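input
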Amino acid sequence: MPPKRRSSLPYHCARHRVSIVPVEFRDLRWAIAASQHRSLRQAAETLRIKQSTLSRCLRSLEHTLGSTLFERTNGGTRPTIEGQEFLDAARRIVGDTEALAARLKTRSRGESGELTIGIQTSLSAGNLRATLLEHRHRFPDVETQLVDGLSDHLTLNLASSAIDVAFVAEPNPRWSDRSLLLWSERIVAALPTNHPLARHDVVHWGELRREPLLVSQRGPGPELHKLLISKMGAADSCPVLRHDVGLDRLFTLVGAGWGILLILESATGMSYAGVTFREVQDAEGPTRVSFRAYWRQDNSNPSLRPLLDLLRERYPDLSADPGAG
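output
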């Protein structure tokens, strides 16, 4: 069996023997500076080093490469043909390296990269929309992916690291890791415009009894249905029409007179034909649902930290440990 080729041996081809020549990154930058200024004195001043230091570096580089890179004359210093070829490659290496270093630096600060966010409410209006728009304005190089889902599904996605953070209506007793109390949203009834309740300024929970209720299987729909049951005191207080479709299709059904839809106020940012929005109240006034941000303490995605900082800036938690992650 022939012996294996050692990785340290130079590479052979039909015409040349090619070996690895050790050249420092600093040498590339200094050679580029010398070619730009065409004067070792001016290049040395720009680099803030002695001219003799730069001259020795270039001589050493030429000796290492076995090729003359610069012609030295009384009129200045200019690259040779071999030197120009070397400098073209050096500029590509330096440019690519500096660009990579800049990308890694911004990524380590969370200013670039990817962030996956789970949402449970609409983005047509409200605090979540404003928060995400502000985050995108501050960090345009962070690629954000949104995942819509039920509270339980988003919790499972968090636990499996499929998403980085979730904005979910509280309470969520299944989550024992990090969370931050954010905003609250009013409960709103989407009514057919010709419905008698649409003539009122507000709708009270008792007035919804026996009204056909459209319930989405997505987003906060199941939570809002549970809230309705708790307010009515009976599971059969309203005929329930369940649909596994998005809000836009349910609004169309409301406008067609199929029933009433309970939503959060963040979903009222768009107008729909034949649909009127009315706040839902009880004896104590508007009914509100609070939202929290949920995330894992051991999440190592650098892009998560700036979003959490933004949330704490907009919705400060005065009871929290300022150093907590």
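quick obs: The first strand starts at residue 11 and ends at 12.
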